[in-house]
Amino acid sequence: MMNRNPHIAVVGATGAVGVEMIQTLERRGFPAGQLTLLASARSAGKTLPFNGAQIAIKELTKDSFSGIDIALFSAGGSISTEFAPIAVRAGAVVVDNSSAFRMDDQVPLVVPEVNASDIALHKGIIANPNCTTAITLMALYPLHRAFGVRRIFASSYQAVSGTGARALEELKQQVSQIVKQEPVTTEVYPHQIAFNVLPHVDSFLDTGYTKEEMKMQNEGRKIMHHPSFLASVTCVRVPVYRAHSIAVSAEFERPVTVEAAREVLRLAPGLDMIDDPSRNEYPMPLFVAERDHCAVGRLRLDCAMENGLCFWVSGDQLLKGAALNAVQIAEELLK
Question: pLDDT tens across 292-305, in order?
Answer without folding.
Answer: 999 999 999 999 99
